[in-house]
Amino acid sequence: xxxxxxxxxxxxxxxxxxxxxxxxxxxxxxxxxxxxxxxxxxxxxxxxxxxxxxxxxxxxxxxxxxxxxxxxxxxxxxxxxxxxxxxxxxxxxxxxxxxxxxxxxxxxxxxxxxxxxxxxxxxxxxxxxxxxxxxxxxxxxxxxxxxxxxxxxxxxxxxxxxxxxxxxxxxxxxxxxxxxxxxxxxxxxxxxxxxxxxxxxxxxxxxxxxxxxxxxxxxxxxxxxxxxxxxxxxxxxxxxxxxxxxxxxxxxxxxxxxxxxxxxxxxxxxxxxxxxxxxxxxxxxxxxxxxxxxxxxxxxxxxxxxxxxxxxxxxxxxxxxxxxxxxxxxxxxxxxxxxxxxxxxxxxxxxxxxxxxxxxxxxxxxxxxxxxxxxxxxxxxxxxxxxxxxxxxxxxxxxxxxxxxxxxxxxxxxxxxxxxxxxxxxxxxxxxxxxxxxxxxxxxxxxxxxxxxxxxxxx
Amino acid sequence: xxxxxxxxxxxxxxxxxxxxxxxxxxxxxxxxxxxxxxxxxxxxxxxxxxxxxxxxxxxxxxxxxxxxxxxxxxxxxxxxxxxxxxxxxxxxxxxxxxxxxxxxxxxxxxxxxxxxxxxxxxxxxxxxxxxxxxxxxxxxxxxxxxxxxxxxxxxxxxxxxxxxxxxxxxxxxxxxxxxxxxxxxxxxxxxxxxxxxxxxxxxxxxxxxxxxxxxxxxxxxxxxxxxxxxxxxxxxxxxxxxxxxxxxxxxxxxxxxxxxxxxxxxxxxxxxxxxxxxxxxxxxxxxxxxxxxxxxxxxxxxxxxxxxxxxxxxxxxxxxxxxxxxxxxxxxxxxxxxxxxxxxxxxxxx
Lengths: 459, 350
Description:
The structure holds 2 protein chains of 2 kinds. By secondary structure, chain A is an alpha+beta fold. Chain A folds into 4 domains: 2-65, Uridine Diphospho-n-acetylenolpyruvylglucosamine Reductase, domain 2, CATH 3.30.43; 72-189, Uridine Diphospho-n-acetylenolpyruvylglucosamine Reductase, domain 3, CATH 3.30.465.10; 193-303, Alpha-Beta Plaits (2-Layer Sandwich), CATH 3.30.70; 308-441, Alpha-Beta Plaits (2-Layer Sandwich). Chain A has helices at residues 25-38, 90-97, 116-122, 129-132, 166-170, 204-216, 229-239, 259-275, 287-298, 300-305, 323-337, 365-382, 398-404, 407-420, 435-441; strands at residues 18-20, 42-45, 62-65, 72-76, 81-84, 102-103, 139-145, 151-155, 179-186, 188-189, 193-201, 223-228, 249-257, 280-283, 310-313, 341-346, 351-358. A 7-stranded antiparallel sheet of chain A has the order 14-11-13-12-16-17-15, with helices on both faces. In chain A, strand 4 (72-76) and strand 5 form a beta hairpin. In chain A, helix 11 (323-337) packs antiparallel against helix 12 (365-382) and helix 13 (398-404) packs across helix 15 (435-441). The radius of gyration of chain A is 22 Å and the shape is globular. By secondary structure, chain B is α+β, with helices and mostly antiparallel strands. Chain B has a 5-stranded antiparallel sheet with strand order 3-4-8-6-7. Chain B has a 4-stranded antiparallel sheet with strand order 11-12-10-13. In chain B, strand 11 (199-205) and strand 12 (208-215) form a beta hairpin. The radius of gyration of chain B is 21 Å and the shape is globular. The relative contact order of chain B is 0.14. The interface between A and B is large, with 97 and 86 residues.
C-alpha cells in the first residue's frame, strides 16, 4: 500500500486502512454501498498527481483508486465530444482526438500523468486558461455515484440541462460530494498555428505593466506566463532554453489562431513589449523554437527543485494589478524567513505559483516553509484574491479557508455537502474546515481587508 | 445605490414571519418559469457598478444594475459580455439575468453566462450576507456556489452583487448566408465548428442558414472566403434581433418551445415552425403540440424541452429523473431551509 500513502504533495503521508481498485462502475457502486453500511470513510484517488493532499488517505478509511477505469468510451467528432472513464489521462484525450483535428483544452502541467476524473474533482487549470477556461468550462456531463450508490447524471450532450447547475458544483468539489464514474468533455478544433514571444524586463513591475497593456489592446493570448529572476536562473542552469539571465522578469506570450490573425497580433504584442522597455524580445519562428521557449517554463518546477532539496509550491490568485505589490510582500517575507522563493506566475489570469525552497532534513525548516506559505496566502486574500487558483484546498490549505470565508459561508458549504453526503463519509476532513477547527486555530475571516495579526509588516 | 443591508433586513423579517418573498428586478422575464408568488422584494434600487478595471477583464455590479448600462459601460472600453445575454426588455437587471441564466447567439463558441460568472454576493436563507467566488478568474476554494446561482431563478438566495469576466469586442464581424435545408445546415455548421474558424453564431430558419464570424479583420475575411457563402450580409442587427426574440420567427403564435440538444442532432420530427440556433444546440419551435409529444422527441436525442413562453397549465421544464429531482430538492433545502425565496417559481414541488 506504500505507493498510495501520499499524492503529489508528499509532505503529508498516511497509510489507508485498505485500497480498492475497482474495474467497473458496478464494483464502485458495491464498494460505496458497503462503506456506507459499515460507516467507513472513502477517499477517492485518480493518478495521485494532486498538489494539495486531496487524495491523502485516512488511516481508518478506504482509498478508492479509479486508475483501472481508464477507457475512452468514444469520440464524437461532429458533436466535438469525448466520453471518458475517470482514469483516462488528460493528454491521452488530445492524442486520441488529434486524428479528427480536435483536442481537449485544459492542460495542467501534470497532463502526461493526471487523470480526467481528478481534473474534474480539482477543476484543474493549466497555462491556457485565460483563453480556453478551466475544467469546468470544458466538461459537459459528469456521472456521479453518491455514497448511497445512486447514480446522478449531471449535464449531458446538450449545452445546458434543466434544474440547478449541479455540474458546476461538482467541478472542483474535491471528492467530497460523490464519486465520478464517467465524463463527457467538449473538444475544440486544433488552432491553425501558434507562436510564442519571450521578453525580458528590468523589473517585475514593468513586466506586469506590459501584461496589462497587451490585454488592454484587446488581445487575448492563449498563454501569458511570467517568471522571476530566480526561476530564470534555475531553468538556465537546468536546460538552457536561452532565457535572458540578466532580466529581473521574463514574459512568455503565446498567440494562437489563424495564420493572419496570429501575425497581426504578434506585431501588436511586439510593439507593446518594446513600449514597455523590454530588454530583449525573442519570437519563435518554428514549432521547434516554440517548444524550446516553452521548455523553460515547463521545466521551472524541477529546475527550481535543484537549488534546494525540497520546494513547496503555492497557488494563490490575485487581481493582476496587485502583482508588483504582492511580489514585494513575498520578497520581504522570504528574507524574513531566510527561505528563497522563486516565482512562476500565470500572469494572464493572476494565478501565482511561489515556490518556497527549503531542506526538509534541517530541523524545523518544513514548518518554516509552511508558515511562510500561509503568510503568502494571507497576502493573496488581502489583495482580493483566493488561497487556491487551481490546485485545490485538500489537506494543505484547509486552515487558510478559515481566513478566506466567514463562518456563515463555511456553514453553507457544509450544508451543500450534507445534501450529497449526509453522513460525511466522502473525503472527510478535507477542502472545507469545520468551524470548530477554525476556532481552535484562531484564524479569522478577513473583514474589509483587515488581516489578523495587524502588527506584522505586510507591504 | 447600496441597499444591501436593507435587503438583508427585509429577508430576515420575512424568515422570522415565515412569509415567502418573490424577488423582483426589472420584471422583464416574468414570463419565464412558473408564476411568481409571495410578497414582492424589489431589489432594483440596489444598483451601480462597484468595480470595473478594464485591464483586469472583470466587472462587478450590484444586482439591480441595468443590463443596458453595463453593456454601454463595457462598450465604451471596447469590451463586452461574450455570452450575449438577452435582456427581453429595457428594465432587465444583471441580477435577473444571472437568475435566468440565458445566453445569446455566441454561446456554443464563446461560452455561457455561468462560464463567465466569477463571483456573487447574496443574502442566504438565514438572512446572512455571504460571498462566493470573487474577482479572479481562477478560484477553486470551496464549492462553486457562484455558478450554482446561474439559472437558479432566485430560489436559492437574493443576489446582491455579481462579478463577470469580460472580453474585448472582436475587431471585425461578418455575416454570411447559405441556402441550405435544415439537415444540411446543421451538418455543415457542426463540421465547421470542428475546424479552426472564427465562428460566433449560426442560425437556420426557412431554408436560410446565417453564420457569423468574429475576430481580426484578416481572419474573418479569410474565413468568409473559405466558406464561400451564397451571400454576404451587411446587417448585424440580425443577431441582436435573434437574441432579443424580435426576429420575425418569434412574432405571432402563442406557444414558444425551447429544445436544447446535442448540436449535431438531425432535424426532429415535430410539426410546427422551427428556428435552429446555436449551430443546432438550441432549437425554437412554434407549435401547438402537447408537451409530452415534444419531450418524447427531445429526450431520446439526449436533450430537453422547455415551454419558454406560453399560457399556464403546462409543465414548463423537462421532468428530471427521480434521483436527480430528489437531489435538487435537497440543494434547495440546504440553501433556503425556510423556503422563503421565489416559492414554486422553478419547480412545482418547492
